[in-house]
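Protocol step 4 of 6: structure prediction from sequence.
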Amino acid sequence: MAVATTFKIMPESPSADITEIERAVKEKLDVKDSRIEPLAFGMKVLKVLVVTEDTGTQDAENIIKSIEGVGEVEVESQTLL
């Protein structure tokens, strides 16, 4: 069974290249949708919809956290497919 998870990815600083983070996430995970949204004070967040096997989100979170420029990763929503 597969799981669709939306992750909210916050860069470590306002100067981090959010489009480069987005590219790196797409290279490493099965991203079905992504969008960059304003947060506050010029900072932007990346939201990605990732499809994984039903083994939990920890592996995907660790992959995202290992990407240069990523500050925090939060699970926003999750649903079975």
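Step 5 (inspection) to follow. The chain is about 25% helix and 50% strand.
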